[in-house]
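queue> pop job 88
queue> type: inverse folding (structure -> sequence)
queue> payload:
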C-alpha cells in the first residue's frame, strides 16, 4: 500500500482500507514500510504520526515532503497477545481534514497453528 497526497487529501493506492499483516507468530514483531508520495504542487507537512496500542512508529518523515517527493513511514507491530487485532495509525498533516487514519489488522497465532 502507498499513501498519495493530491494537495487536498491523503489517500491509499490500495482498494482495501486496511494494511493486512496476515498471520504473525506470537512474541514476534512485524515491520512494514508505508511509502508516502506527494503528487501535488504544494509541500506535504506531516507533523505527527501516532499509533494505537501494540503498534509503534520507529520512524516517520521529519521534514517537509516537497511537490513530487517521496518518504516513508516505518511501522512495527509487537505480537505479544494471541488472537486477531485491528489497530489505527493516525497521520497529522496539512491535508484538508488534518488527519488521515490507516487501519492495520492481522492475527497473532501460536507456532503450532501455522
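queue> result:
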Amino acid at each position: 500500500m502507498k499513501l498519495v497526497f493530491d494537495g487536498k487529501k491523503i489517500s491509499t493506492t490500495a482498494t482495501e482500507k486496511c494494511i493486512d499483516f496476515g498471520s504473525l507468530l506470537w512474541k514476534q514483531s512485524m515491520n512494514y514500510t508505508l511509502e508516502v508520495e506527494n503528487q501535488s504542487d504544494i509541500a506535504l507537512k506531516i507533523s505527527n504520526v501516532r499509533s494505537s496500542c501494540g503498534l509503534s512508529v520507529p520512524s516517520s518523515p521529519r521534514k517537509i515532503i516537497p511537490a513530487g517527493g517521496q518518504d516513508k513511514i516505518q511501522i512495527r507491530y509487537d505480537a505479544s497477545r494471541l488472537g486477531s487485532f485491528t489497530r489505527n495509525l493516525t497521520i497529522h498533516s496539512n491535508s484538508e481534514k488534518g488527519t488521515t487514519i490507516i487501519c492495520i489488522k492481522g492475527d497473532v497465532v501460536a507456532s503450532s497453528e501455522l
